[in-house]
Write the C-alpha cells for this entry.
Amino acid sequence: MRVRPLRLRPGGPASRRFGTALVAVVAAVAALTSGCVQGEGGGEADGSDIRLDYAYYNPLSLVVRDQKLLENAGHSVTWILSAGSNKANENLRAEAIDIGSTAGSAALLARANNTPIKVVSLYSKPEWAALVVPQDSAVRSVAQLRGQKIAATKGTDPYFFLLQALGTAGLTGKDVDIVNIQHADGKTALERGSVAAWAGLDPHMAQSRQEGKSRLVYRNPDFNTYGTLNAREDFLTEHPDRAQAVVDAYEQARVWALAHPAELAALLAREAGITPQIAAEQVERTVLDNDPVPGPELHAVLARVIPIIVADGSVRSQQDATAALESLFDPQFATKATV
C-alpha cells in the first residue's frame, strides 16, 4: 500500500518571498499551537478554564458552543475547530485542548500510540462514513476498486471504514493506492477526477452527494465506530469537576437536539456553511439517542477494529492495541451526567 502525502505548491520564487513566507509560517504555527478561534480566548493564560474542540461531524459540539452551555454555567471556554479526528488527536497530544471529539477508532489508535486519553462519553452513533464515487463511475462494488486511487484521511473513521470495506471483498490496503489527504481535500479530489473513490465524512459526503453528483457505492453503519468524547488523563485527574461539566453540557445538548432536529440541522448548516438540505441528510444519518456511557457495545466495536489497525501498521503490536482498549474508557462522568 502506498500512502501519498498532500503536497503544497510554493507561491512564488523563494528568493523574493522567503521573508514574507517565514513570517506567515511563524504566525500560522503560533495560531495552531495556541489553539484559538479568533475572538474566543487563548487558554488558561487568558482566564479560560476549559479548552474544547467543536466539529461539523459532531453536531452536539455546535449546540454546546452556540448555546453557551458551559459559559452560562460559569466556565470560560476556548473553542478550537477540529477538521477531523486526526486533528483532534493532534491537539490532545499537544495539550492544546483538554477534551476533544473523535471517532472511537481514532481514540483507540491515539491511546495505543501513547497519547494519554480516556473516552468519557459517546456523543453519537453516526453513519458518517461511506465509500463515495462519481455518479457516472463504472464502479458498482468494492471489488472493482482493486488497483484504484482512493482518497482517505489516515487515523480517522473513514480510513478504517475503507479498510473494513476492502476486507468484505477480500482486499487489503495493499490492493489499492491510498491518497492520504484531509476530508475536505478528498471530496475535492474525487469531484475533480483525481481519485476513483473517496472514504467520505459528513457533512462533506452529504454535500458531495447532493451538489457534486457523487454516489455512495458502499455503506455499512456497523463499520462506523461511534463518536467519542476524549479527555486528557491529566485534565481528568486535576479537574474532574470541569470534565463533569463538559459531559453534563453534552447531555443538555443531546436532550435539546433530540427535541429540535430541524433547529439542529439549521445550526449545522449555518456553522458549516452548507445548505439546510445537506445538513438534514447528515442529521438523518446520526443517531443521538444512544447510551452515552462507554461500555461493552463500544468495546465490541473497537475489538473488531484491532486486527485491522495492527495489519495496517497503525500500531506497533496487537498487545499494544489490546492494552489500549482495556484502559481506554472512563465511564464515571457519563454515568453521573445530569441535565
Remarks:
- Residues 1-43 have pLDDT under 50 and may be disordered.
